[in-house]
Write a structure and sequence with these properties.
The structure is a homodimer.
Chain A: H1 3-9, H2 13-27, E1 38-43, E2 55-60, E3 68-73, H3 81-93, E4 100-107, H4 113-130, E5 137-144, H5 151-163, H6 171-180, E6 189-196, E7 203-211, E8 224-229, H7 235-247, E9 253-254, E10 264-269, H8 285-305, E11 313-321, H9 324-336, H10 338-345, H11 351-359, E12 375-380, E13 388-393, E14 396-397, H12 403-410, E15 414-420, E16 426-433, H13 437-443
Parallel strand pairs in A: 4-5, 8-10, 9-16, 11-15
Antiparallel strand pairs in A: 1-2, 2-4, 3-10, 6-7, 7-8, 11-16, 12-13, 12-15, 13-14
Helix pairs in contact in A: 3-4, 4-5, 7-8, 9-11
Amino acid sequence: MNSSLLTTGVQSKTNLQKIFMDKYSLYVPNEGTFPKGYKVASIATGVKPDDKLDLGIILNTNKSYKSSAAAVFTTNKFKAAPVLVSKKVLEDNSGKDINAIVINSGCANSVTGEVGMKDANEMINQINSKIDQENSTLVMSTGVIGQRLDLDKISKGIDESFEGPHFDDSYESWLNLAKSICTTDTFPKLVTETFTLNSSGKEFTLTGIAKGAGMICPNMATLLGFILTDLPIESNALGKMLKFATDRSFNCISVDGDMSTNDTITMLANGAVEVEEIDENSKDFLQVQKQITRFAQKLAQLVVRDGEGSTKFVTVKVENSLVYEDAKVIAESISNSMLVKTALYGQDANWGRILCAIGYAKLDNLKSLDVDKINVSFITTDNSEPRELKLVSNGVPQLNIDEERASEILALNDLEILVDLGTGKENAKFWTCDLSHEYVTINGDYRS
Amino acid sequence: MNSSLLTTGVQSKTNLQKIFMDKYSLYVPNEGTFPKGYKVASIATGVKPDDKLDLGIILNTNKSYKSSAAAVFTTNKFKAAPVLVSKKVLEDNSGKDINAIVINSGCANSVTGEVGMKDANEMINQINSKIDQENSTLVMSTGVIGQRLDLDKISKGIDESFEGPHFDDSYESWLNLAKSICTTDTFPKLVTETFTLNSSGKEFTLTGIAKGAGMICPNMATLLGFILTDLPIESNALGKMLKFATDRSFNCISVDGDMSTNDTITMLANGAVEVEEIDENSKDFLQVQKQITRFAQKLAQLVVRDGEGSTKFVTVKVENSLVYEDAKVIAESISNSMLVKTALYGQDANWGRILCAIGYAKLDNLKSLDVDKINVSFITTDNSEPRELKLVSNGVPQLNIDEERASEILALNDLEILVDLGTGKENAKFWTCDLSHEYVTINGDYRS
């Protein structure tokens, strides 16, 4: 028992606010270019208290191309109504001609049975009639589960959004949209970037918004994310790109290992940039898939950066595995281990806990892990040298680890754990955060 | 953010010591009857500081029967040297004629390569030569991993144990043995019970000792347990009984979901009670298997009771599943969820997090879970009424949950979560504890 840690581990409210302020200024852009042809609006409907923004709507206004859509949904067996309803819209339309997304926060519309389905359908029907197009809207919800939506407030909010000059494509409107879907998030998650197609030299833009604030599970449900682009991408190709990107981004982050009933990542491609439609055989396919993947990683990393109570952002790299899936499952096992997370919080170079988490990962191919070939290191993310601190070399713990250097690396807000399996050539990455007293405080007292 | 919880959540050192004292008096017996024919010794070798007991030895002295042995070992791919060495002894001897177990604490002899194997072998060879019998000793180790055993100290300790009048069958000797294998445990875990065979009316005794202190993983490696009986049980039958019992006890507890490199549960049956040897066809087989299972559950529950930093002991019952394995995997998913654990710590009747953990359990048979049939309740363990507080009924959250009653139940140190799947007839139980600020403090600062 170390009573000084007991004291220092718990930060005063003032200190915490300072950390939150820093995260906002570090991770929220203060300007941006956005994809052509979209307009967004957000409004405070009163579902959330204190006039907070709690409803966002995205509209595609480009009609020269039938906008494609794709989504990746939670695999939790309890799927919230908006997940089931959006899934059906995509299936009915084969992912084509989707022109709106509506998102509400404050209530997840999850475990709400038949009325929940009815409410979710009413939300999309209301938008469909506003844009005068059937079956063209997706819906996402986040917030408390088991409570019925206050549809009166939401419906009034949707009406108001379409009445005044709410829809816009300014930086402020996009930022407000990002704010409107936040729950326990301490900063809105907005990323936007412009790229050039190698084939034609034409520019296109990706804008992504996410929420997650850490726990990736109810009572505050949910990881939500959406990525919008102005490229024309055939809907099957878009589905493949999004699945590929999600597997390497939103499915590679860990805050507490829980998975919610509402998790949804959606992508729209409205074709406002005039190039040939990109399909799976197109020469642009791989370039765009790669860029969407890197972009999704940036967005997903913001969710970890905002991990509830976290003080550290840790990249876990597992390299040279015989099988990719095994590299990923090992990275996941390290990232989810409560003992690794608490050691990181305690700034303890505890390679034993890392090996332990590697050892109980359930491998596809046992040959991916050879206990005599494994190397484990910490890697700095600043410019100091030496960048690598070896902890385990060919399965043997390093004698005389430079504890001073270890302390320097572990004191950083960002660091890397590198595991080299030495059994093949496949690599995987995960992003995780530490487990702090603050996490326990936040989650021990969420509802009240 | 709730700054009052921030303050109250962290207990002062004085309060914590009070909790530990209570656990000792509640869970450590102050007398006991022990199985015939065993003698035990424990000693302070100096591996641990402050003259703490750190080496224990169990000897079978009954020579009228060839003592049977069985063990269940960790499935972690990094297996400590004592695990590999004991496994080989059991294989070489087909689980027969094992007459000694030696256990050291303070050093887990894990991730120690060839020298670790040599050291573990030297420990058993030394005991074998003391009892003048080859290949007759099992070894278990617990403590820091990656450090070499101080074999000089341990060897001197073994010599000393056999020199004076150390070996004994008194209550004090058994209790000291339980103490000698502790690491971060706050109380020694010793259970002993006498039973009557239905067939012959003869009495037999089970004595169990375990350690685990919570985290069930290094840097402090390990869950260790052993059960000794004076029945004669054929070694294959003993292996089946122990596997059956372990699957329903030590494999059904969760403190933090990590699994160590050293986990080992061992059982000896020395036949000092003169009845016909029990094999798989014996009429006593099922009775004894059942009693060993219940006994192992009591012992395993003590590990959860001593869960690091825990304030609550929670039984998770999943009933009426189509498939037993699915009931178990759902119970495990609830028990390991950090969000359920923090909600329990915060005394929050958060059924949403329970449903969420059920929903992401990886089922064998999807039909075990029908979201419209599920019932979730809290159950009191005291005598107050009503005993059951329904949270979810046939998939629908209860409106107007009696929050006052919920608070009463959640304020208890012991409580049950009952999940009725309503899809079949199979039941499973898990035992878990909450996740507190103290857990983070203990594990954020273990090595230093």
